[in-house]
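User: Structure please.
Assistant: Input sequence and predicted structure:
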Amino acid sequence: MASKTTKLQPQVAEPPAKQLNPKRMIGITSDKGGNGKSTVARALGDILIQRDIPTRAFDCDRRNAQLHRHYNQAFSSAFDSDAGVSRIDLSVRGGADELLNSLESPTTQIVLIDFPAGGGELFERFEREMKLFDFLDEIGYQLTMVSVLSRVKDSINSLRTLMEYCGDRADHVVLKNCFFGEPEKFSRFDHSKTKALVLQTGGVILNFPDLYDSTYDVLDDKNLTFSDALQPKSGLPMADRRRAKVFLDEAEAEFLKAAEFLGLA
C-alpha cells in the first residue's frame, strides 16, 4: 500500500524585527540666524547628558559656536571620551571626516549636529557628497532633522525644501520657538500645506519654551550650561536659577513628545 504523502506548506519568511532603539543622527537646522537653533541644540544636549545617553556632539557654526562654547567641557566630562563638542566645517572637502569617523564608535548612541544658520543647503551638499542616506542605512543609524521655526515665511519655505529633499529618508521634528510668541501666533505655519505635510509623513510638532531675556543673557555671559545654571555655585540669583529650571523642565517635556525621534525613548 502506497504511503500517504504529506503536502508541504510553503515557507513564508518572517519580516526582520524592527529595531526599537536605533542609533540616531540628529541635525538641528533653521532658515537663518537668530531663530534659536543653537539654544535648541544646547537644551537637547543638556538633557541627553543628564539622561546619560552616550552622545557625540558637533558644532558646524564657524562664527557663532554656541554649542561648543557652552557644552564642550560638559560633553567631555559626561562620557569620558575627552571629545567634548567638536568644531567642524562642512563647507570644505573633508570637513565632515571627524563626524563620519565617529559613527564607528560602538558606544555612541546619538550624534548631535548643530548646523549653521541656513544650513539646509549645506546639509544637501554634505548628503550628496557622502551619499549620507545610504550610508546611515548601512551602519544602522536613523536620521532626524529638527527644524526650528520663527513666524516668518522663510522658515516655512526652508522646512518645505528640506522635507522634499529628504523624502522618507529622515524623521522630522518641527519646533515653534515661543520666543517669537505663543504657539497660536504661528498662524502662517498652522494654516500651511507644509504643516499638513509634516503631520502626514509622521513628523512631530513641538512648542519650544521661551527663557526670560535677562536669565538667558547671564547664562550667555558666563558660558553656563542650563544644568549648571540650576546650581547655587553658578552665582546666579535664585530667581534666575528658578527660571532656568522651569525652562529646562518645559523643554524636556516637549522633547519627550518626540522621544523616539530624539533618542530619548
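The radius of gyration is 21 Å.
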